[in-house]
Amino acid sequence: MARTRARLRGTSLVEVLVTLVITAIALIGLAGMQARGANWQRDAFDRRAAAELALQLEERVRANYAGFRQGAYAVVLAGPPAMPPAAPAVPAAGVIPTAAESATRDLAVWLAELRRRIPMASAAVINNSATEFEIVIGLREPTADGVDPVCTAAGVGAAGYRCFRTVSHP
């Protein structure tokens, strides 16, 4: 009887070790899910920023339709670390800039904002026709497999990039 009581009184060292191993495996899984969730959050943040930036450029082009018709908005910023050109000085009071000058300034300001919000991004603005243009923003994604065909077609990014693409009719 004494043996049975001693056996039922507590847990053995083996049971404690098994419990610790199961707990450790569960915590490692949770840590992996946390890291993956942070990557997904960053990806969503970059895609949202790309959509907002594309919309901003679309509005700039609509405001300067003459510059669009002249092809002044066509540009390729093929990936980091190239920096966009500095924005031209604001014209003096009473001086009205030409459509091309406005487009140059719009692009410089937009590309600087792109670099600020998505530092490793690349971008292309392509005039498809007299009434349509395309904005492609390449987002650095280290876990991306292969080369995104949208990036390749626009001439931005390489392996490890995914592209956000939008077509607009100003």
Descriptive account of the structure:
This protein is of the alpha+beta class and 170 residues long. It has one domain. It has helices at residues 2-8, 13-63, 65-69, 99-117, 149-154, and strands at 75-77, 122-129, 132-140, 161-168. It has a four-stranded antiparallel beta sheet. The longest helix is centred in the first third of the chain and has 51 residues, at 13-63.
Shape: elongated
Largest beta-sheet characterization: 4 strands, antiparallel
Number of strands: 4
Number of helices: 5
Q: What is the radius of gyration computed over CA atoms, rounded to a whole number of angstroms?
A: 27 Å
Number of domains: 1
How large is the share of residues in beta strands?
Answer: 15-25%
What is the secondary structure topology, with strand pairs?
Blueprint: H1 2-8, H2 13-63, H3 65-69, E1 75-77, H4 99-117, E2 122-129, E3 132-140, H5 149-154, E4 161-168
Antiparallel strand pairs: 1-2, 2-3, 3-4
Gist of the model:
By secondary structure, this protein is of the alpha+beta class. The chain is 52% helix and 16% strand.
Attribute tags:
170 residues, single chain, four-stranded antiparallel beta sheet, 5 helices, alpha+beta, 52% helix
